[in-house]
Amino acid sequence: MRLAPRFVLAFGFVATLSVAGLGYVVREDRTESETKRFDQEVKGACDRVVKGILYQAESDAKLVGGACQSGELVDRALIWVEAGTLDDERRLSLSRIVPEERQAFDFDELVLATADGDRLGQDPITLLNTPRAELAKLVGGDVAHFALRGPPKPGLVSRCRKQGTNGRAVGLVGTRSLDKLIERLSNTIDAQVTIGAAPPARPDVAQWACPLTDAAGASIPLVVSKSKKELVENLARIDQTVIYAGLASTGVALVIALLLARGPVRRIQELAAEARKVASGEARPVRVRGAGEIAELAQSFDKMLEDLAGMRRRLAATTRVAAWREVARRVAHEVKNPLAPIRAAVETLRRLRARNDPEFDAYFDEATRTVLDEVHRIANIVTEFTRFARLPAPQPTDVDVMELARQVVRLHEAGTKAKVDVVVERVPPVVRADRDQIVQVLTNLVQNALDAVKDKGDGEGGEVHVVVGIEGTSMVTVTVSDNGPGIAPEIAARLFEPYATTKRHGTGLGLAIAQRIAIEHNGELSYVPSTSPRGAAFRLVLPVEGPPPVSAEGTPSSGPEAG
Q1: pTM of this prediction?
Q2: Is pLDDT of 264 > 80?
């Protein structure tokens, strides 16, 4: 390992390890203390609820006791009960006073009755259904302490009882709803209080149970539930603080390491920057002063650049010679074919002329026509080869491929009986491309497809489909397919080679030129094998960002240059 990485890794490792250890200890300590504090807060909330209920119960007991000691309602009822003058009219007057007393005491229920269960007044009206024996039990209960009433309507029961001279007694029983009281207390502690069994445990909620007990030993369980959102937020702030401290310490250590290793690192960066340029041939020798491993590496790098430059020159020369040999072989082959009928026609004319054959004049027109046709064919071969060899570099502009496809289809559908349509799977973005060259590619593909289906009979019409779509987010695709006879496997393997064709009058350079245009646009043109024995499809893929920039040596094409 070199010096610079040693400094950076050593300082970074020490800082990270020390901060991570310290941060872990601090976090665990703070987490434990914060969790305990939160649990104590929930327990304290439960205790406060119980204290609040007991305080309310004591207040209610005092309030009811005062009504028996000096209240007009209980005294008036007791006088009438002892005198035996409690008629219906007086009962009605007592029942009218009880609702007013309930509202004044702020009770939820209030009952006035004798010790033997004779109801003298009640509020609300639903207490009329209370049995006499139950009323007697309520009035005869402990008046010194409150009592708990369990579900389904839990409440705090406070009572008072006043004894007459003849043994008769009248009592006042007030009940406060425990549900309403707990709802009011829940708002003061920012937690939810449940009466009865604890709700199902949840990971995001803390719970604490505390019993509510009266003097007789009756008990009602209370459960306080509080969201752990506050605890989670506090722990998150602790983690955030630890992380920030760790990042700051690590950053300081890295800055120190970089300052110490700045010299060696800068030299290595210069070397790496030039190494990245090796593939494009733009790398330059690196000047490194001093000695040591970096200087040795720079010297080796410079030597490698010299070796690569020589190898590139030899490879380029070899490749150019091989390419020209292949092109020359193919051109010779294509030119040789029309030379045979020219030679045959000339030799026949010479024989007829030598023996003064009367058929000479008749054959002369046919022979010269053959010679001219074959010469024209040779001229076409030379023209197409020139176009292939001297294809200009792309001149990219913003191009709407979908609109180009529609224009090409409109130009061809008028002169054919085949069905030609454009299908847009997904609307493509605008691409950077040479408009004329892309039109040339699409025209070649559509024309080839129309040539493939032109011999279709009347029973089965020819169809050509141009499908425009998107591949990923950076590629636009155009697929041209037909329902023609298809392409033989032996031809499909060399479709894009120059002078490979299945047409009687084709030069075999159309697809080769189209593929070269696609490659120079940093794209691809490929034959899509069909799953059925009929039909053919070609797929053009173009990048949205367009072709690569033209190098100083010429176009980015891979074929031979024209002389």
Answers
A1: 0.42
A2: no
